[in-house]
Design brief:
six-stranded antiparallel β-sheet
């Protein structure tokens, strides 16, 4: 790109923030309330040489801005900020450190670890109170001005109703690295993400939305690089507007847009897992890469009276200060940018409680939630919160405002505990089957607010839940001290893989029973990628740093007989869920309401077909439960679903309760190949650690 530079920048405008190409030049605008001067640094196309430096000539309402005529997409730049270096009062300005624009839409290069990326002298006796005067420009990524033109076609977003949604949580790189039908040069990239065979696989599963682990540009942590490991999950954001460069083929950001368009054309929504609670700069001993050098005291929450130190509600060293209007604006602008420029259908908010914290703690009426829910673009998207953080009073499942769904870890834990053989769990399991109304039935929320899952990226895979009693995280380099120690799992006799056919058959049955529990419960089901064919991480329940075959999906398992059968079984579950509204009641309503005389919306039964009594609910060794739902269909008929559950070690004969209709057995977790068959007896065999689903239909009187 050839550019004849003027002697100085024109004043430009304080909005929009970021580097904006408007046809004749680029407007630069960046917030800093405490800087005394900000410089724009222009680099050559290779980003190796700084070729010009301009002072931003104007500051309006704490936004520094300037306009560079004749510049356009492809221009490589960064910032330097001047001001006090006074960590004790929260200020860490150091103009020797090149800074990433918080609104950068594309990055070139990556952080090269050296002492010079830190604002202080590493190993100095005064630690971060000292100042490092070496230039960091050669060591940090540069920003690139982009144009956002893209042909989105006419399909548009699928706009799948929440009540019909089935989520598939996946890692952008991990879903394709192990695929032999994808060219080597594009594996692990956005281009491979939307491969036709992968989309066909999602269709077979009945998935309506793919939820991607972070795709924002992120940092390879210093301590991991020293160990020869890599940050795989990406929960360490370096830029809130730029996609991770490693996920782009030849740096083409439109590859991600192409993938999203292909998903939309296939009727599949795309949800992004986003990390706005902290940044990659860490605590006071972390590097100076962007926000810290631009205005540390504004962008981060600092300890009152000890502003040298950061409030660490995230467990990651710092906490983004969403109480500051410009910082909140940055997050809202980022969300809106991804929604409008990339046509993203929803967001899952990592450590959502942190985002809702004000000075007095978590507040469901915080500025963050209010800003999203009043926004005409964002409020219409699928919004999901991880309802906890590591700060004080950090667990708030069910306390988020209407409009948000929440990861229901109680559903996960109680489902695992019940099927692992734990006592006294029938009531807990029952609550999860009806979308945990004690938690979510308030403020006119609906069952979809409960995101029901058996496994997610953080923790055991579903296959490992039935294969390991203990975590095995030795490869992470922390002597197996990282990750959760309580996984509510059961290896059924052998730790890890087993050649004992009786054990593998039992594991397969329990796994089918647990996945059926997820997909046959009210609420929104979420699958972890690979769980549908038994993907294992060899007992590692914290594979955040395992960017290798341990974490990448092993597609050879998918074509094995057991993997193929499990995938078919999961597809059968989603097909049943889609076809039968009684398997996904859309509202919290009075369960005792009589849909037909003697037929309430919800009923619970014991082994002998009698209604569950208080004594039965309290019996700790009870592991058998019948669960019947009834609803009126659009054609005026009454549909009934009867789920017979046996969490015990022995086969049972479950007596069928009196019914206004004949039953058809449509699913049996003891047999992955079962076909629908009428029930002629007054009892049904339910295998140990298994479940059976019966469906029926009656005519409304």
């Amino acid at each position: 790109m050839s550019l004849s530079f003027p002697n100085r920048l024109d004043p430009g405008l304080p909005y929009p923030l970021g580097a904006t190409y408007e046809g004749l030049g680029v407007n630069f605008a960046v917030f800093s309330g405490n800087a005394s001067k900000i410089e724009l640094c222009i680099f050559d196309a290779s980003a190796r040489r700084e070729i010009r430096r301009f002072t931003l000539p104007e500051c309006t309402d704490e936004v520094w801005h300037g306009y560079l005529p004749n510049a356009g997409p492809g221009l490589v730049y960064g910032y330097r900020a001047y001001g006090p270096y006074d960590p004790g009062n929260g200020h860490r300005f150091n103009p020797q450190k090149l800074l990433i624009d918080p609104y950068a839409r594309k990055l070139l290069g990556s952080v090269r670890w050296s002492d010079a990326v830190f604002g202080y002298r590493v190993q100095h006796p005064k630690a971060d109170l000292s100042i490092d005067r070496r230039d960091s420009a050669a060591l940090v990524p540069k920003c690139i001005v982009t144009g956002d033109s893209f042909n989105w076609g006419k399909t548009g977003s699928p706009c799948t109703p929440w009540a019909d949604t089935v989520i598939y949580e996946a890692h952008l790189k991990g879903v394709s690295m192990g695929r032999k039908d994808v060219p080597d040069e594009v594996r692990g990239t956005s281009q491979a993400l939307s491969h036709p065979r992968f989309i066909d696989h999602l269709h077979k599963l009945g998935v309506t939305a793919i939820e991607l682990l972070p795709v924002h540009a992120f940092l390879q942590d210093h301590f991991l690089v020293e160990r020869g490991l890599r940050n795989y999950w990406g929960y360490n954001t370096l830029a809130f507007f730029a996609p991770e460069p490693a996920y782009l083929t030849n740096g083409k950001i439109n590859d991600l847009r192409v993938a999203i368009r292909k998903f939309h054309d296939a009727g599949i929504e795309v949800i992004l897992d986003v990390v706005y609670n902290h940044t990659a700069e860490g605590n006071e001993l972390g590097p100076t890469l962007s926000w810290r050098g631009l205005d540390n005291a504004s962008y981060y929450r600092l300890i009152p009276g000890e502003e040298r130190y950061y409030i660490n509600d995230t467990g990651c060293g710092n906490t983004v200060n969403l109480s500051h209007p410009r910082v909140l604006q940055m997050v809202m602008d980022s969300l809106r940018y991804w929604a409008e420029s990339y046509h993203i259908d929803g967001f899952r908010f990592d450590l959502g409680v942190t985002l809702g914290r004000e000075g007095t703690g978590f507040d469901p009426g915080s500025g963050f939630f209010d800003a999203i829910l009043q926004d005409p673009v964002l409020s219409r998207l699928k919004l999901i919160s991880e309802p906890w953080d590591t700060g004080p009073d950090g667990y708030h499942l069910g306390n988020h405002p209407p409009g948000f769904a929440e990861w229901n870890d109680k559903f996960r834990d109680n489902t695992r505990r019940f099927w692992a053989g734990g006592p006294g769990l029938r009531g807990e399991l029952a609550a999860g089957l009806v979308a945990s109304p004690a938690i979510f039935d308030g403020r006119h929320r609906r069952p979809w607010a409960s995101i029901n899952f058996l496994a997610a990226h953080d923790g055991f895979t579903a296959a490992d839940v039935v294969s390991y009693n203990d975590k095995h995280n030795e490869a992470n380099g922390d002597e197996n001290n990282d990750g959760h120690s309580e996984n509510f799992s059961n290896n059924w006799g052998v730790e890890g893989p087993s050649n004992n056919r009786a054990i593998t058959v039992l594991r397969e049955r329990v796994l089918r029973s647990m996945l059926a529990t997820v997909l046959l419960s009210d609420g929104t089901p979420m699958l972890l990628a690979g769980d549908e064919f038994g993907n294992s991480q060899e007992g590692n329940n914290n594979a955040y740093c395992q960017d290798n075959e341990l974490s990448w999906l092993d597609w050879s398992q998918a074509i094995s007989p057991a993997g193929h059968d499990l995938t078919t079984f999961v597809g059968r579950l989603t097909s049943l869920r889609r076809a039968h509204p009684s398997l996904r009641l859309a509202r919290f309503e009075d369960g005792n309401y009589q849909v037909l005389p003697g037929v309430p919306r919800v009923a619970w039964y014991d082994l002998d077909g009698s209604l569950m009594s208080p004594e039965a609910w309290d019996y700790p060794e009870g592991r058998v439960l019948g669960f019947r739902r009834a609803c009126t269909t659009t054609d005026g008929k009454v549909e009934l679903a009867l789920l017979l559950i046996n969490g015990g070690p022995d086969d049972i004969q479950f007596h069928i309760p009196e019914s206004p209709c004949p039953w058809v057995a449509v699913l049996n977790s003891a047999d992955a190949h079962v076909v629908a068959a009428p029930v002629h007896d007054d009892h049904v065999k339910v295998a140990a650690h298994g479940l059976v689903l019966l469906m029926g239909q009656a005519v409304a009187s």
